[in-house]
């Protein structure tokens, strides 16, 4: 059975450690580079450990709309700011705000400080919509936490898109 079909079941327990992320990447045939570092909670803390890591470093925001019936994983280049008012208009929402730690755990199986694209592994019902900074399309490689904030994983942009296709979550590219 091809790895694409084999691992699509995603009804497994929530990701609790980075090894499960590495297992998914390996099953999908996605090469990655792993960089271990002390725990980081902000981009400013993480920058100290990025000096030898090539590619775009990504900021990941988990947002919800006012009613709490739409959830978004917003991915942008780490040095950019997300204008939530502008994003509200682009997405046709009434008001976006940061989702609670409980929602983060429920929908992506993650703890605050570890928000990552790889949390989509824990969203088999595709509740979370992915919004990506269109400037990332020019990246050769992109970097994310492997669902813990003690490491950074780099993959090619093409493999990032392959991973997104595998998850089946809705994806939009927007300017930031």
Descriptive overview:
There is one protein chain. Strand 6 and strand 7 form a beta hairpin. Strands 1, 2, 3, 4, 5, 6, 7 and 8 form an 8-stranded mixed β-sheet that branches. The protein has a single domain, classed as YbaK protein (Alpha-Beta Complex). Helices cover 26% and strands 25% of the residues. The chain has 176 residues and is of the alpha/beta class.
Total domains, how many? 1
CATH architecture: Alpha-Beta Complex
CATH topology: YbaK protein
The H/E string reads HHEHEEHEHEEEHE
Which blocks of ≥5 consecutive residues have pLDDT under 50?
A: 1-15
Radius of gyration: 15 Å
Mean pLDDT: 87
Classify the beta-strand content into a percent band. 25-35%
Shape: globular
The CA-CA distance between the termini, in Å, is 40 Å
- How many β-strand runs? 8
CATH level 1 name: Alpha Beta
Secondary structure category:
alpha/beta
Q: What is the CATH H-level superfamily?
A: YbaK/aminoacyl-tRNA synthetase-associated domain
The biggest beta sheet is recorded as: 8 strands, mixed
**Total count of helical runs of at least 4 residues:** 6
Short description:
The protein has 176 residues and is an alpha/beta fold. The chain is built from 6 helices and 8 strands.
Structural key phrases:
176 residues, alpha/beta, YbaK protein, 6 helices, 26% helix
């Amino acid at each position: 059975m091809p790895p694409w079909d084999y691992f699509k079941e995603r009804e497994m327990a929530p990701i609790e450690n980075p090894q499960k992320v590495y297992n998914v990447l390996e099953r999908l045939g996605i090469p990655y580079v792993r960089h271990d570092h002390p725990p980081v909670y902000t981009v400013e803390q993480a920058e100290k450990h990025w000096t030898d890591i090539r590619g775009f470093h990504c900021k990941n925001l988990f947002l919800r709309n006012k009613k709490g019936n739409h959830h978004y994983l917003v991915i942008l280049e780490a040095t950019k700011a997300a204008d939530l008012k502008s994003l509200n208009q682009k997405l046709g929402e009434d008001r976006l705000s940061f989702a609670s730690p409980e929602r983060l755990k429920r929908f992506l199986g993650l703890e605050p400080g570890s928000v990552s694209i790889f949390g989509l592994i824990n969203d088999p019902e595709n509740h979370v919509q992915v919004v990506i900074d269109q400037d990332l399309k020019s990246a050769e490689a992109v970097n994310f936490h492997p669902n813990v904030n003690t490491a950074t994983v780099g993959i090619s942009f093409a493999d990032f898109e392959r991973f997104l296709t595998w998850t089946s979550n809705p994806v939009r590219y927007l300017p930031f």
